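Priority: medium. Attachment 1 of 2:
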């Protein structure tokens, strides 16, 4: 109670959030604990004793006050995949923006889900902590008077899927630190459980919302339910055209909402998640259990696509924005005509893999990111030299060999940018941009050229924060840079991110107005070269 009172007192002085919007308080204790997701004992990362962690339930514009106490023996951070942290990248929870929480200490995140709806998740961003748990679902409901383009479901479930290793996160980290690649995962989990370890209860004739997020380390997964259709209704904060699918490819880092109607004979049915684009298909199952079930599951689990690229590409192109539906505000999503805006800059990003000093590294435009001892955002705020330099990564592929640097690319506030992800490798890639939602305007095979703009979807492309790039292919996005800050653009293939396939986008303005960017939080942790500095007086 005292802790909550202290939070309330501190927030009352904290001018960055709006008094009329509700506050939701969370007190989380992060600990190690024994978990057995694949039948063997592992050291997991638990939040309030839970694996996965507790869901965050919120409504558009809510202020989320999340006090995180780190009871681990190592530093820890949480990041909020898809939460845009408007004007406030200090709270993003990646090492480029936020100092880690030391062992035995706490930090209170002060977030606002400003002008957002939809399905997202949080995860531990340091080291290989993500391989031990510490993740959970985030749902942002529409405000009561904002219309939603489907009836209220009879139930609402978080479904966290992902590949998984039996090895502890420390073992996986040591493997990467020795310059090696990670082996093939040992299994796939649904909500932290292995085969048939989780079930979802439904009543015949009723409709349920499933919020599916791929929180794994590497692999795209195909999700399906035996004899049931998945009606897609929302992707990472965008209401979509309501297309029904027999199965859905969910690439690592992505989130989808589907409606499932219990319209089959009353029994149990398999829920299946299986790896895509892998030589060995790894599969797990859960159960959809009718309340009046007359029997167990029957037959084998339904099969799904395995290595077919065109199948996945065609499905991705079919996912489009519902232009007449409201988003977080009453006006239709289609009222923002992104296709009529002239782009001010084109950025082309190409990944590569190779050896540096005899160790495996990954890069974007030949630069393999190395984290300094000071978060970039703090160095920027306090004008600390020697931490990073703007322009340390090119906005075009250089064609040279991989080298190490603290890569920061600058772009102007309020510019409208085209970013092309060029994938010359033979694996599916997945990229995420913190702080933003972008329009996925095109994707196809081969090398991108300006002529490919003729095939862009400039009307109803889906807006999201994580996109896939198929092997030997490209994906193009449009993004309005309306959120000042230091924002992480990374591979969601976590070993690649850890070994350098990321950089920071510095969205810059000379303005010092709080209308453009909030000042540093009063409770910000300080580390590295920022130690001994001062935030702001209470």
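Attachment 2 of 2:
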């Amino acid at each position: 109670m005292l802790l909550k009172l202290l939070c309330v007192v501190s927030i009352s002085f904290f001018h960055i959030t709006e008094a009329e919007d509700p506050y939701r308080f969370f007190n989380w204790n992060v600990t190690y604990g024994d978990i057995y997701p694949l039948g063997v004992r592992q050291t997991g990362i638990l939040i309030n004793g839970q694996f996965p962690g507790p869901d965050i339930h919120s409504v558009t514009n809510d202020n989320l006050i999340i006090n995180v106490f780190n009871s681990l023996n190592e530093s820890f951070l949480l990041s909020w995949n898809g939460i845009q942290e408007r004007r406030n990248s200090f709270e993003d929870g990646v090492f480029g923006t936020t100092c880690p929480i030391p062992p035995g200490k706490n930090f209170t995140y002060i977030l606002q889900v400003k002008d957002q709806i939809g399905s997202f998740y949080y995860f531990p961003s340091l080291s290989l902590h993500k391989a031990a748990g510490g993740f959970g679902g985030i749902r942002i409901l529409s405000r009561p008077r904002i219309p939603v383009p489907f009836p209220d479901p009879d139930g609402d479930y978080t479904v966290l899927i992902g590949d998984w290793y039996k090895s502890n996160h420390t073992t996986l980290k040591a493997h990467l630190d020795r310059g090696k690649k990670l082996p093939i995962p040992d299994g796939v989990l649904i909500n932290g459980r292995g085969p048939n370890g989780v079930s979802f209860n439904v009543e015949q004739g009723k409709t349920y919302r499933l919020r599916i997020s791929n929180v794994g380390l590497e692999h795209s997964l195909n999700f399906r339910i035996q004899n049931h259709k998945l009606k897609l209704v929302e992707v990472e904060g965008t209401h979509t055209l309501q297309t029904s699918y027999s199965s859905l490819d969910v690439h690592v880092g992505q989130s989808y909402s589907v409606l499932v109607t219990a319209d089959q004979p009353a029994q149990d049915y398999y829920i299946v998640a299986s790896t895509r684009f892998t030589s060995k298909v790894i599969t797990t199952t859960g159960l959809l259990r009718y309340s009046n079930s007359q029997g167990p599951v029957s037959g084998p689990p339904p099969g799904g696509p395995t290595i077919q690229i065109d199948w996945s590409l065609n499905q991705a192109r079919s996912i489009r924005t519902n232009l007449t539906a409201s988003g977080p505000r009453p006006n239709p999503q289609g009222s923002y005509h992104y296709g009529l805006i002239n782009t001010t800059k084109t950025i082309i990003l190409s990944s590569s893999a190779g050896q540096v000093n005899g160790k495996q590294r990954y890069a974007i435009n030949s630069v393999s990111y190395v984290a300094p001892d000071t978060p970039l955002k703090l160095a920027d705020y306090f004008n600390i030299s020697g931490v990073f330099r703007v322009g340390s990564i090119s906005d075009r592929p250089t064609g040279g060999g991989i080298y190490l640097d603290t890569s920061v690319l600058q772009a102007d506030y309020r510019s409208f940018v085209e970013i092309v992800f060029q994938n010359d490798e033979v694996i599916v890639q997945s990229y995420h941009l913190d702080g933003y939602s972008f329009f996925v305007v095109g994707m196809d095979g081969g090398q991108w050229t300006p002529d490919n703009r003729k095939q862009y979807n400039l009307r109803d492309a889906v807006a999201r924060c994580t996109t896939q790039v198929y092997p030997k292919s490209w994906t193009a996005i449009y993004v309005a840079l309306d959120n000042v800050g230091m924002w992480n653009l990374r591979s969601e293939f976590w070993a690649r991110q850890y070994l350098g396939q990321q950089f920071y986008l510095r969205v810059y303005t000379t303005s010092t107005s709080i209308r453009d960017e909030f000042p540093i939080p009063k409770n910000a942790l300080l580390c590295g070269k920022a130690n001994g500095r001062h935030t702001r007086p209470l």
